[in-house]
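As the next step, I wrote out a protein sequence along with its fold in token form, included below for the reader:
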Amino acid sequence: MKQPKQQLQQFTALISEILKLTNLMSKLLTKEAETLKGSSPETLNELIEHKKQVAQSLNVKTHQLDHFLISNGFQCGKVGINSLLQAIPSSNPTHSIWSKMKAATEACAKQNEINGATIRIMQQHARRSLDILRGRHQSDSYYGADGYSKRENRSNSLLTV
């Protein structure tokens, strides 16, 4: 199946824009990882807001891509993209852009997972510090029937404010 040149250009433009946004998100996630190592809540809040804006832009472009695919007789999502890519020669630069976008997306997912793990560890440390101040010990927690850790509701606070 041969796609008209205009449709191919539109598809290439859409995935190029998504690639740019994905690369920006990757940079923000890397900067977030560096900020998490430091102690600058203001910088972290600014990064979070910027990430939200980029994520919203990515959602808009993804919806535009899905609309493009459907309006051109393809399924939305990966299935439609793969079908469209199969319909064009592998020498077309669109394939390269798509490969770069997939790699950038995978890098973002990996860095986001690392950042999430860092945040969870920081939360655990903060929770343990608060438990010490409240007079709680690790032995005060147990596993409930649902498999989640539970804490007894007793308190021997070291200090009161």
